[in-house]
Amino acid sequence: MGDFNYFNSLAVYACNLGLDRPERQALIKSIEADHTKSKTPPTKGDSWTGDVNSSCQLHDQPEFDKFFKLASVAVDNYMTGLGVNTTMLDTYFTRSWAVRQEGSQAVSLHDHAQSHISICYYPEAHPAHGAFVIAPQELPNEFFPNLFSNEHHKTTGLVDANNPHTQSCYNLKPQDDMLLIFPSKMHHQVRPNADTYPTLARYSVSSDIVCTLKSAHLYEHGLPPLPLWKKLEILNE
Ligand SMILES: [Fe+2]
To answer: What distance in Å separates the CA atoms of residue 131 and residue 96, rounded to the nearest whole number?
Structure first.
């Protein structure tokens, strides 16, 4: 028997953000207040998301100051850990919003294509909360299309559902004060809460992050610094 060798795996960074319980409760209270104010009628299937119902700029709200300060440090650790020299980049929170779900509500499979890095934070977790699901777009070991990504093949005996190579998605259970950081292009979704807790709410805070180069000199890739951009005034009158 030979060995499998693995190369350049997808990495999702997880850490404790460092907010104490009263601070995390205060964030939940703020999200709950925004949710209550929201006029959009709830749906059975979709979670309530603050970006389209309340605010997409939590990073400008004073009650989230400490959250974004600590998240900045975590994002710097993530980028540095990936081997990136963060002193050569300017990094921006661009859109930040809360998500609330209960009952059969979930978040369907998506990515954040307009962004570079995304974060997701759980102030308080409960065992019945729906999992964060990582569903990589590419399954590098799937040697013919849909072999692993179509669940049907796991019911016919064609592929072993328990073999780690055949997995097309991975569940990550939220923990108290857990911050996840991942490439925005990564496909992900959120499962509903366990149906034994129909009124239990699950809260999270998300933010999208964009990086620009501090100097555009001699670089082909990466966004040039914001001050070098020129608005097409004729299109923006
Ligand atoms: Fe997302």
So the answer is: 20
Q: Is residue 216 part of a domain?
A: yes
Give residue 112 CA to ligand 1 midpoint distance, Å: 6
State in Å: Cα 97 to ligand 1 middle: 10
Is the overall model pTM greater than 0.90, yes or no? yes
Domains of the chain: total: 1
Q: What is the largest CA-CA distance in the chain?
A: 68
User: What pLDDT digit, counting tens, does each position of 37-94 carry?
Assistant: 887 777 888 889 888 888 899 999 999 999 999 999 999 999 999 999 999 999 999 9
Report the separation in Å between the CA atom of 135 and the middle of ligand 1, taken as the mean of its atom positions: 12
Ligand 1 centroid distance, CA of 32 (Å): 19
Gap from CA of 187 to ligand 1 centroid (Å): 8
CATH number, position 204? 2.60.120.620
Q: How far is the CA of 82 from the centre of ligand 1 (A)?
A: 21
